[in-house]
Design a protein that fits this description.
Elements lengths: L5 E4 L2 H16 L7 E6 L3 H11 L4 E11 L2 E9 L3 H4 L6 E8 L3 H9 L4 E7 L9 E5 L4 E4 L18
Parallel strand pairs: 1-8, 2-3, 2-5, 5-6, 6-7
Antiparallel strand pairs: 3-4
Bound molecules: 1-O-pyrophosphono-5-O-phosphono-alpha-D-ribofuranose and magnesium ion.
The site of 1-O-pyrophosphono-5-O-phosphono-alpha-D-ribofuranose has 18 residues, from β2, β3, β5 and α4.
């Protein structure tokens, strides 16, 4: 598999705005969440923003590794599971947070551990949409999202390079 055709670069400002929009959406559910389980590593950043906005202080991680060479998804490896007390009652009142759902495999794997939890992510691609309960922005499946923590400043060729 090669890199998707379209690029969706996200700045820190935009990510903060979108993660805060997700927090507003979750606040509107009028549901009390007793804990956040964030899917590392991408879920750590929105979890920090959402935990601040919703005043959730109990934060757990589930550590899943799957994308071993940038775009190609290898086997999923569970590096660290979830504290047993948060898995009681299928994870009822637990909020699971990730930066995005793409094929939906990561969310589906975590759902097997927390079937009754609420799954939220900032961005979603169509294949992943059915695996989450709440998200903010959908991008097409052939789009690659570039997160600010993966980026650096580089020279950009003019769009009309060579012209004039
Ligand atoms: O819906 P999927 O096709 O499973 O893809 C979505 C997952 O892929 C990315 O994580 P990644 O496995 O790249 O690891 P990272 O969060 O540690 O960067 C992203 O943060 C999601 O967790
Ligand atoms: Mg991830």
């Amino acid at each position: 598999m090669s890199l998707p055709d379209k690029a969706f670069p996200v700045s820190w400002d935009q990510f903060h705005r979108d993660a805060r929009a997700l927090a507003w959406r979750l606040a509107g559910l009028n549901q009390t969440f007793k804990a956040i389980v964030c899917i590392t590593r991408g879920g750590l950043v929105p979890a920090a923003i959402i935990s601040r906005e919703l005043n959730i202080r109990l934060i757990e991680t589930v550590c899943v590794a799957s994308y071993h060479d940038y775009v190609n998804q290898g086997d999923m490896v569970l590096l660290k599971g979830i504290a047993p007390e948060l898995m009681e009652n299928g994870g009822e009142s637990v909020l699971v947070v990730d930066d995005l759902t793409d094929t939906g495999k990561t969310a589906a794997q975590v759902r097997t551990m927390l079937p009754k939890a609420h799954f939220a992510c900032v961005y979603a691609k169509p294949k992943g949409v059915p695996t989450v309960d709440t998200f903010i922005t959908e991008v097409s499946q052939d789009t690659w999202i570039y997160f600010p923590w993966d980026m650096g400043f580089t020279y950009q060729e003019p769009i009309a390079k060579g012209a004039g």
